[in-house]
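U., I forgot to send this yesterday:
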Amino acid sequence: MQNSVGIVETKYYKTEDKIILESGEQLGPIQIAYETYGTLNAQKDNAILLLHALTGDAHAAGFNSEQDKKPGWWDDMVGPGKAFDTEKYFVISSNMLGGCSGTTGPCSINPNTGKPYGLNFPVITIEDAVKVQKKLVDYLGVKKLIVAGGSMGGMQALEWAITHSDMVESAIIIASTSRLTAQGIAFNAVGRNAILSDPYFNNGDYYDKEKQPEKGLAIARMIGHITYLCEESMHSKFGRHFKNETNGIEKPNFDFNIDFQVESYLAHQGQTFVERFDANSYLYITKAVDYFDLAQKHGSLTNAFKKTNARFLIMSFTTDWLFPTSQSKEIVQALIKAGKDVSFCEIDSPCGHDAFLLEFETQTKIVKSFLSKAAGEKNATV
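Result:
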């Protein structure tokens, strides 16, 4: 547990009022699962809000118990002396609205019926998720904020910087985009269709059933996971190797069962995902990602960034073809046109889109430098 935040507790905050969603519907009360690391200072201005990717949760760092074998999803980046240094910052991580790890979502109990929402849960957007996160941040007493996230987390960070420009001082956007391409939407659509076509989906009402839409959710995860890797990483991990071998010689099965090592890997990813995630949540969160489009919402990307006062750090990865560097550069160029302070770095990595979860050493150096400069400039103006 060297440089770890140690044992942490997932906490819960419940809003008593309702929020008006972007769709016009109302939702509430809302429970928010969250964790915090470090201490909020007297000025209440040393907070960092970490925003998770598509299937993440509030558990970003440390361990929830002594028996935990696996730490939080960004443990390499959060802790004493790490990129998000808990000796300097009060770090917050919350589960997104619509999720299935403690924050209100389709598997939560609908107070009007006493049963899980299922598909009666309203369709949500990234803007709605930020509204809920703002409730939590206000509850914690935070006055000024740094926001940081990768992938979908980067989308949330962009929304935060624009919508709450009076609060957000810096934004760190990693392997993200201001809007999905048609190809990105297509991958999400295929994943959703796999779930909707599962014979046990039962129009989203499966929580008390013996059979769950596991096959559809597993296929959705397999499709998504392909986009998180890249050709180079898949070739180095699996090549065209067969799963089975006889006398040291790899041989095909000559049937339609799992044959190649890459097939076995994807099947494993699908199965482990089913054990921790909800099929309805996958539908809602991928739809929220699809709807996110800052240029459409504000007239142009440059117009969107005119509303923010934050300093930006934008990072991309060379082999990320889901959210390629060109999309990060589009954000950078719009920020420059809007007259904003922006730093950009493309990191050479063979890890594809997943690099933001893996390339922690390089990211740590860049993030530390950015935060140090931001803190220096802030202190100089006090």
